[in-house]
Amino acid sequence: MSFLQLNAISHVYLTESAAKEALSDLSFSIAEGEFVSLLGPSGCGKSTLLSIISGLLQPTEGSVSLQNKMIQSPGERMGYMLQQDYLFPWKTIEDNCYIGLKLLNKLTPEKKEITLALLDSMGLSDVRHAYPDQLSGGMRQRVALVRTLATDPDLLLLDEPFSALDYQTKLKLEDLVFQTLKAHQKTAILVTHDIGEAIAMSDQIILLSPRPGKIAKIFQVPSQLQTLLPFEARNDPVFPENFQMIWKELDSLEQSPT
């Protein structure tokens, strides 16, 4: 039984002068605990697809179900982490981490304790009383991850969460996110333009075609890479050949006439 199931998803954006098809007849499933990356040319509909999965956007056609329940609106079963951290600058780090729990009316002493333990596991316990402008970009993204995990979502949606960071911070945060999601046995979907990041973090990579986005190919990441930390995976002998394989496929898609 699939944890997440997408059935024949199509989406059209309507303007006063035109109709633009963003996604076309897209179907796939994800198992519980799996980490899947969405990869494809710019404008192929990756972020649109993530918005549909989250329930923020209703598809023109098709359906999405999570644990056999249809997704028709945003809910607590989803956790969304974006490129920008969107921390409230007037709230402390600790209070920022409680936002989701407060909105869901679930800010119990037990949940506070769990959230503080998450902060500690991210190396942030000593800045819990600080404010966002006192933290680096990497630290702010770690806070955003704690805030996302604090509500204990069934599915995490990661929309290029590392793209605004410097390369060294990005690599360190990849490892931290990977370890954290595995430790909490979370299912996750990552939108990225970075082939290396997709290989290093994922169990499966779904390559989308240029707009309208369709599934061009699905790559299974070798099992020996799936068990390694992302930084270690990048240094494994099979990493370069997988990178080249996906690179060639992506390049051929971008060169193809649309």
UniProtKB/TrEMBL annotation:
This is ATP-binding cassette domain-containing protein. CDD domains: ABC_NrtD_SsuB_transporters. It holds the Pfam family ABC_tran. One of its GO terms (molecular function) is ATP binding. The keyword Transport applies. The keyword Nucleotide-binding applies. SUPFAM superfamilies: P-loop containing nucleoside triphosphate hydrolases. Residues 4-235 form the ABC transporter domain. Gene3D superfamilies: P-loop containing nucleotide triphosphate hydrolases (3.40.50.300). Keywords: ATP-binding, Nucleotide-binding, Transport. It comes from the Bacteria.
